[in-house]
């Protein structure tokens, strides 16, 4: 989840809309029973938390785990001292927050296993080998964007896209001399285009359910903001590619990579079977964990039949990751990855972030601010802008993509009704920011997963994930000029 550095694959997080809404209803049906904290206290707690996390990560250059725990402690202490919260209540909030990520955590563990097995089977090496033969720097960025967009539209899953062709594209980009953060940003843009627009996507179904709208009304409304953004993104990546037009690919280096891969692995079309199987299963909305297991088994069969791998080789690759020792640095760097152990850093970050988010939610700090804002907004542009920033803050301080959609959605729905705006305006706005900004934040499950898959930190690839940060801006600008606004009577 919403909410990521190595390997290949995972099918979509198979949350159902009903299960998410059940959690959301249980959490928020108490809203009228609890008194929200004072706005000043809420603003102070959020500001202090933001400073602790931001200063530590950006200035001190440390991992976000401990700063997030410090922010959680501050939030809990303020809740107990100023709001009279009991520790048992806050602990329940933490556990509820973590429970939202249990399925993604299991998937992440499985993904580490799959990554190691797929490298051992020659699947990842084959994708890199053939990709280096076909693509060139001057078309790579746009080709990567379009490829990821098609796969994510077909599967409805940014996770599947990044974990299959995304990992291969990172290797191809490296071979072509494209900086890793740029390649990762392009992959994230393409992956989240489909995650946002596909009727198979969990968030695409969740947003209209929260707003009280219809799925295809929601998708048609998103075209107004997403298509112009996508065209701008293509133009941006085309312009960026000009930097590489005059770049002479080091043919010898590329050939060294391809020759080394061919000498270490038996590369043939059968080695591509595992990712093809996973993509097809994801497109059919096959459950995530069984899909991963089948993808792993396919990789095991290919590894045994075509690579002569032993049981010990496969178990080691699944647990600790594949370790390449070809003597060619570029190849060893590309292929030394994967394994169950490799995912523990990301999983611990997600648990820390959702513990913090659970305390924030239980104390009602973010709801207090959103509730105050929703009462004073009296024009469409202000409402859309505030909802977009609220979704961003939801991702930042609740640590979960779904909460970044659900919390602002419930808080601002009365304001949208008051201005006679159609439900698809609310659902579109929630996705314009809630879905797209989640992978740009390292401590969400989406940001942690994308970083883990692509081998690049979220803050490093964020500037190049143009679709993800530009779409919310386009949405605000279009609203300011009165374009693409739908009222209930429409």
Describe this structure as you would to a colleague.
The protein is 75% helix and 0% strand. It is mostly helical and 490 residues long.
Q: Could you describe the largest sheet, including whether it forms a barrel?
A: none
**What would you call the structural class?**
mainly alpha
Number of helices: 24
Beta-strand percent range? under 5%
The low-pLDDT segments are 1-26, 28-33
Q: Give the radius of gyration.
A: 22 Å
**Fraction of helical residues:** over 70%
Tell me the span between the first and last alpha carbons: 34 Å
Order of secondary-structure elements: HHHHHHHHHHHHHHHHHHHHHHHH
Average pLDDT rating:
86
Number of strand segments: 0
Task: Report the principal-axis shape.
Answer: globular
What is the compact description of this entry?
Helices cover 75% and strands 0% of the residues. By secondary structure, the protein is mostly helical.
